[in-house]
Every structure is written in structure tokens, then in C-alpha cells.
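User: Batch of two.

Assistant: Item 1 of 2:
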Amino acid sequence: MANVRTSRTAVPITGGWIQVKHRLERIDTVLLRVPDLERTVRWYTETLGLKIKWRTDLIATLKAGDGTPITFVPQDAVKEECPFFNFYTSDLRGAYEEMKLLGVEVGPIRDYGTVQTFDFKDDSGQLLNVCHF
């Protein structure tokens, strides 16, 4: 990817500049891959008192108070590299296109029905994620 130097509020394009809106609104969740989802959920709820925010067979999101939730994914359910946390945006397509304009290395947009995401890498090569639901 090209390394684009900008003011971070506007980037040059053919014929002028485009305003950058910085569409990432919050850290949505911290992600952890675990060997045993059931055991992990039981430990975090019974030992630490976290509450289940939502749960499926392949994922569990727990919350402590009003802070950022933690999402557990079974290690064997995700074969590829997995980000440690993700950001939320209410405009996934806008955030995706904006990052491309800024020269950020982005992966494809994935649609999981109620959740859409894309991965990207920071300038140190760390894999991160943006989601919308």
C-alpha cells in the first residue's frame, strides 16, 4: 500500500482534496480466542461476575458494567489471524472507502447478515477490525 501523508483532516485526490470524516466511533469489543468456550463463559460469569450480552454456539460476548465488552471465540472456529479488538462505525462503507483513500491496507467487506465487518492493518502491521450492526 502506498504511504499517503496527509493532514489527517483532508487527503489529496485528482483535482483537489477530500475531507476526512474519521468514521470510527468507539472500540466495540475486545476479542479473545479460547480453547473451551463453555468453560471460559462459566469462569468469567461465575468468578468475575460478568454478564452475558449475547451468545451463539460460536461466540459469546460478556460485559462488565457500562465498559467495552469482551467477545470469546473458540480457537478452532477461526483458522486465520484474528484481531484483538474492533472498532464500531455507523457507516461501514464510508469508513472502508476513507481508509482506502488514506492508504490503509484493508481487506474485503464481509457480510454476516446482521453484522458487516472488514479488517485492516495499522502502520505496525497489527490486524484490526471495523464492524457495523
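Item 2 of 2:
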Amino acid sequence: MAIGQGAFYLASGLWPLFDLESFEKVTGPKTDDWLVKTVGLLLATTGVVLLDAGFRAWTEDDLPGELVAIAGGEALVLGGVSSFYSLVGRISKIYLADAAVELALALAWRAASPARGRSVEASARHGNRRVA
């Protein structure tokens, strides 16, 4: 799952950096190109981190809890923002498709890691120490 989300974020993050014109044809015109590119770089960065973690892990359970939280949390935030601003007419309705993908990712992370209260032993595998 980390590999799939990582590839999606890397591709969608780099798209406006390399071809802002086609990005705006699909997603609608933007007023602040710098902001589009900044968000693109942030998404691409998350994508690279998820890809790296995904290729290193044998299973989703081998991923650090913090990475699972950021992957699911970022998907939830992006999906929420896409939904809200699409529905109030601020951005194109095409973002509802992105919202559906993001919601699916957030739910998949939740399903793959129920009650992700990692044990001390599981955290120790990743070199993490809990401080009481």
C-alpha cells in the first residue's frame, strides 16, 4: 500500500512542476502557481518517503507507526480539503475523484493497521523507544 500511495503522490506532485498547463486543463485554472508547485513538492516528498518505506518493508506491519499515521492522515486531510472546496464550488469537481481515492487510502491504512497501538517490542524493531 505504501508503494501504491507513494507512486500516486510522487506522480501527482511532480505533474504541475513539469507541465502546469496540462495540470490546469484537468484541474482548473489556478491563481497562485507558486502554491500549486509548493503543494506538488510536498506531495512528491511524501511520495518518495512512502516508496522508500514500502520497498524496505516486508509487510505493512513492518512500517513504523508514525509512517502509517502520516500516510493515512495526509490522505484524510487531502480528501477532506478536496471534498469541501469542490462541494462549495471553490475548486473543480474533478477533485471529488481525488477525494474518493484519498478516502480509500485512509480507510485502507486504517484497515491494515487496526488498533495501531504498537507494542514496545514492535517499536523496538524500528529502533524506537517509548518514554513514559
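The chain has one domain: 2-113.
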